[in-house]
């Protein structure tokens, strides 16, 4: 599914290097957790995967199903099945949530050479997925993410993920700002999407989310590199002992 | 009238004088009307078109910008078009000539030309002040228009569209409009071109809202790419009257829309929302003044501009608060999305406050597309050009949505997205 090879990347504006020789492989159907202390490059990695222009890849490659995606813009990557659930979903006043969902779904379908959805088909899909995530029709009538609470924003991200049916889902600190009930709803939404042909990268600071979305692999990111990989027990180890031991061992 | 060659006139000034001499014999009016026209024309000739040295025209140097004046064309006949909101009651003015028809109960419309002929309009053919060039040109040349009266307490299900359509030549119209006490209505004042030949359009709307009237008035201007459009909208609000005025510019080569409002009755409220969609080599100026003359009145003004290509835009907004007008609440903002390096927008807010217990503020911003929003939309698979169009649309749609009436919002959003699709 995903192979990141010796990736180096920096902030385009000031040249600060954030990712420093990162290697990571995520197999089909795998749920990979990426953990690490603040400033280790977790969010940067998620932005680079989605194709944000503010970062420049200076070395290495990102292969998605065997092909480099570095030259693709965010929309092209999305159409190929890459999805980023934002840590801070962006408010867009003046764009209705429903209109946005319809445009996004149909643009991806168009890019893949599929027919556009009919309005009744679209409405049915949204209604079903929204009900699963306890998203009210009233919320869907508002402008995109505007006036949504933190929990509503995260649920709206998972709604988009469910509707767009991506192949590689990147969840950037989806647990931040969620109470335990909201966390369960979001985790259930993600677990429902687990499939043999769909991989998930869960970026998180805390073990808590991983109690609900149980990962196959856990990777520790520090100073822009994966310094340790393991199975889910690694997350428990981190929870118990903190990052200091691992960082110390790697240094 | 005998016009002597005096100071040197520009080509456009000379063309106006010449055009007046050609038309004067056939312009409707009695002796008093003719005298009023002559006075306005001679003042126009003497003062000339304003340059940037005239404060009110500082950003729109009409003398330099108005290069020529098309001749009045007899027999020009544009085709009426469908109203913006389906099911509207349409009053049409074709190439400056009004057509009256049977109207729903509560509204009457008469030809303005009749009041020119009988002399009753003559007293209104005066300039607002020494810099009122639009009043002068329009008053000299005006041939027709509509006198619209909305009865006391009247209310309508469908909007009323006053459609002034032209395809070339000169169009000079006036629209005196009276809303009776407590009347409620939505009116779309629409100026559009159906041809590509140049036109000079001047139009003066003069409105009175009696006490408690609630009016939504939408001016939508989509003249042709070669047209000059000089318009004035004046309104006086009675006690507790509410005017929601939307001004949407989406056409014309040289456009000046003046808005002069007197919130004259206690408790009256003005909401002004402006959308300027500017492209090509056009120059568009919205000049607004509001006078708060009595206590407890409110006004808010929000102007949103999208500027492409080599277009230039101007917003001048002046809020005057008289000494007695305590507790005035007035807020004005002007936000511009500049989408080209060669596009320009000038904003000039002006507050003249003589009362001491008021809340008044203004702000102006110039922005580019928000890159975080653009990235978000693209990360969901929306291609860049479409994502940009969505964000530009959102920037102006936000204020259209304040209208709440779904049919109206949908119709105006359609108009805006059509423009963006064509130009952006």
**Strand segment tally of chain A:** 12
Distance between the termini of chain B: 49 Å
CATH fold name of chain A: Rossmann fold
Instruction: Give the CA-based shape of chain A.
Output: globular
Overall SS class of chain A: alpha/beta
Q: Helicity level of chain B, as a percent range?
A: 10-25%
Mean pLDDT of chain A: 93
Given the helix and strand composition of chain B, which structural class is it?
Answer: alpha/beta
Biggest sheet of chain A, strands in spatial order? Answer: 6-9-10-3-11-12
Query: Largest sheet of chain B, described in full?
Result: 10 strands, mixed
Please tag this protein with its features.
heterodimer; A: 251 residues; alpha/beta; Rossmann fold; four-stranded antiparallel beta sheet; 10 helices; 39% helix; globular; B: 424 residues; 2 domains; nine-stranded mixed beta sheet; 19 strands; 39% strand; Fe-S cluster assembly protein SufD (chain B)
Structural write-up:
Chain A: Pfam families: ABC_tran. The complex is a heterodimer of chains A (about 250) and B (about 425). Chain A is an alpha/beta fold and about 250 residues long. Chain A has 10 helices and 12 strands. In chain A, the strands form 3 sheets. A 6-stranded mixed β-sheet of chain A has the order 6-9-10-3-11-12, with helices on both faces. Chain A has a 4-stranded antiparallel β-sheet with strand order 2-1-4-5. In chain A, a hairpin with a 2-residue loop joins strand 11 and strand 12. In chain B, a hairpin with a 2-residue loop joins strand 1 and strand 2. The N and C termini of chain B lie far apart (about 50 Å). The radius of gyration of chain B is 21 Å and the shape is globular. Chain B has 2 domains: about 260 residues, no CATH class; about 55 residues, no CATH class. By secondary structure, chain B is α/β, with parallel strands linked by helices. At the A-B interface, helix 2, strand 7 and helix 3 of A face helix 6 and helix 7 of B.
